Amino acid sequence: MPPMFRLLAPTTRTIERDSFPLQLCDGRHIEVARVRHPRARRLRLTVDERGARLTLPPRASLASSERFAGEHRDWIAQQLERYAPVSAVGLLAGESPELPLRGELVPLQWRTGRYTRVHGDAAGVVISLPASAPRAALVRALRDFYEAQARADAGRWIAAHLPGLPRAPRRVRFRPMSSQWGSLSADGSVSLDLALVLARPSAFEYVVVHELCHLVRPDHTPAFWHEVESRFPAWRAERDYFHAEGRRLKAALRALLA
User: Fold this and answer.
1) Taking the C-alpha atoms of 156, 159, 160 and 163 in order, what is their torsion angle to the nearest 10 degrees?
2) For residues 191 and 177, is the Cβ–Cβ distance under 8 A?
3) How far apart are CA 107 and CA 61, in angstroms?
4) Parallel, antiparallel, or unpaired: how do β-strands 104-112 and 124-129 relate?
5) Closest CA to 23 of 81, 65, 80, 69
6) pTM for this structure?
7) What is the DSSP string of 121-153?
8) What letter does residue 198 receive in the DSSP assignment?
9) Among 181, 189, 187, which Cα is nearest to 243's?
10) DSSP annotation string for 67-99
């Protein structure tokens, strides 16, 4: 097709989402999330703690996508088994005796209060709730508590590791992240996974150092890892920790804030 006619050809620019049922070889029935993406060039099947997801190009048929998933049902079942152990129990209002924080389970006290509040004291964590507090208010208060704890920890480490860096981060944001633990944007802002506050402190510090080193080297070349090594020699142990515990930490945060 001549270039001028290619420019006139209709293209799909929207992302379309739906799902379809799939029976696995062990008899389980699951829902596969299906995403038609304008930039997709082939069928792509992924599985994580949220379930199975199939991405397809704009011109692929729905029948071909379902047939493709069926041909890979054994692989889907194997991957789902990998993620099954990371399921976590959410916070049960008035009942849960402990709360995960900084790699430990700290004692949790429940009290009746005029408004919903989560705060720490010498004995652990205290959650105050009105008698008819909605679940959403508890989730907001818990998320605010976790972010305040994470921000305090990250602030100490950033201040300690700033000497020798070209500049400080423009800002630091916390949010749940699906796969990454941190990132540095072009404007110098650092984003960190809120689930880091559930990890052991040394692992959290490693992620902070990792992102700070991107202020020096924006890539992952040997020169970048030299910067990390000079500031945090034990980084390999923390990377192994995330390989072993990362999915569990992310799943725990999702369950707590569900």
Assistant:
1) 170
2) yes
3) 53
4) parallel
5) 69
6) 0.71
7) ETTEEEEEE-TT--HHHHHHHHHHHHHHHHHHH
8) G
9) 181
10) HHHHHTHHHHHHHHHHHGGG------TTT--EE
| Structural tokens at position 145 | 């508590």
pLDDT, tens digit (0-9, with 9 covering 90-100), for 63-119: 999 999 999 999 998 888 766 544 455 677 778 899 999 999 999 999 998 899 999
Set out the domains of the chain in order of their start, with CATH numbers. Answer: 3-86 (no CATH), 143-256 (3.30.2010.10)
pLDDT in tens, 28-49: 888 999 999 998 899 999 987 6
Instruction: Show the tokens assigned to 168.
Output: 């400080």
Q: How far apart are CA 177 and CA 250, in angstroms?
A: 8
Distance CA 40, CA 57 (A): 5
Residue 32 CA to residue 14 CA, distance in Å, equals: 20
Q: What proportions of the chain, in percent to the nearest 5, are helix, strand and coil? A: 40, 25, 35
